[in-house]
Design a protein that fits this description.
Structural class: alpha+beta
Strand order of the largest sheet: 5-6-7-8-10-9
Strand content: 5-15%
Helix content: 55-70%
Shape: elongated
Number of strands: 10
Distance between the termini: 28 Å
Number of domains: 3
Largest sheet: 6 strands, mixed
Amino acid sequence: MRLRTLALAGVLALGATYAQQTVAPQIARAANDTPADWEKKFERTLDNAVKEYGKLSKWCNKNHLEWTGNYVRRRGFMFRPDHEELRAYFGYEKWEDGRWRQNDIKRDEFRSIIDEDDPNAGKYPKNVAKAQTKIAGWFRGLGSKADKLAAETGDAAWTPLADRAWERALMADPDGKYAKQAHQALEHPQFDGEYVSPFKLRFLEARKSRREAGEALAAKMFDIEQVPADGFIPEAGLEAVGTKATRMLINTTHSQEVSDRLAQWSMRAIEDITERYGFPEAVGDRLGVRKFDVLKQGKEELKPYLTNGAKWDRAKITKYLEYFSGMGVRGGTFVSASGDGAGSDDMVIHQSGHATAGAAMSMALSDLGNRLGSNTSGIEDWLRESIAYDCTRRLTATTLTTCGEFGKYGQDVTPKPGEDLWIQLARRQVEMDDDVALTRLWHLTLNDVRGPETVKGYALLQYLFEQDTAMAQKFIWHALAHGTPAAVVDVYSEWLGTEKPDDSDATAETYKNGAFNQPAYQAAMNALDDRYREWILKAW
């Protein structure tokens, strides 16, 4: 029973006792204090919220913050998702299925808009906080009034009205002045001493468990042995040291201390992915990469390494020196030219993640069968990279290595203490209706992967594991063997309520020629995206 319902019951009981002695007093109320009148005020407040963000957007545009102005203007959709003027401004059309879709020309136009100034350097943070507080205050007033009238009249119709207003107050300013009052009015639970919505609470235990597992493993020490460097480094005439761990050998021209540290990080990454993703323990015995050659940053050591050690020809060396600082060479060796600090740690963790996922793929194929036949070309790039990023961020709380082009993407966002920048960026993509669709993500090559694709893949894995660890592990296993579309259908279609395609006559050739583009696969991936987007908006 709700707390305010209990309070109301006490008031009614007291009134009944008093009524035995005298006539119960009539509560004097204004003539317009009816649920219907309240509904009208609520509707006007929704419109006023849209107008308030519109005013702030105009201020942003005058102050050379056009991208931020559009970001702010879109917040009006939280309150009026079908606002015709807003939809027209952003170039949306309503399709027969009832969903709004943005015109591609308009979408590209808005993508090209930038802020000429830094929004965090001026008055914007103060102004947006003021607008959020103002809007939340309006809904807080409506919620308080509905709660008061529920207690005075005993009319149960007021309670859902109050809830609706308090929820809007939280939506407008989730960390602001009235947030605690709204949580308490809605009787929300607490997690680790903080109020959270029931929706968010569903995911927090899994989120905390995954984070703590990463922190614990980051502190674990494995048995290692200091050994002389071998292979291409000494063959290239470079001085180096080595460290041997159970499943990885590190050679480096940096110090012995660096070599030992990198061996520990590699072992941690292999164990982390094996455990978190539910891979067979034997996956660590099947790694395609068994050695890291870590050179000092720059080309001074890398060029003689490739020339005299790996014996590459001049054309190949020129190509790789121009575009890459890390690559696989013969004999299960990965070479990288990096510093002696966090960057090299990150690289070793990331590439150990690649190796572990690659070994798991061969085992998944043996387990589930090679459904795609000779068309199997390796792990989808988004999946391989996302697994490695997931591991790196849980072990070190950062990711310095980004395969593909990240560029300046996300540099204008400053996360709050304890927040995950990549989650914040992925959320902003959803808020801007510019999320990378899973139907597009799964078949992109690494050359097509940029910042938006990188953070989407990473965030999607967080969602799947927070939603249900066992299902997420099964999804990864199936995706390694059969690809993302098949994995979504095989693992999630029943949960999503989508139909399974009829693949009874499918062959590897039909998959190659676009079988995954049939409506059933597309519908399942779109439905999973819908669940993901709800999660990233409500659970962070």
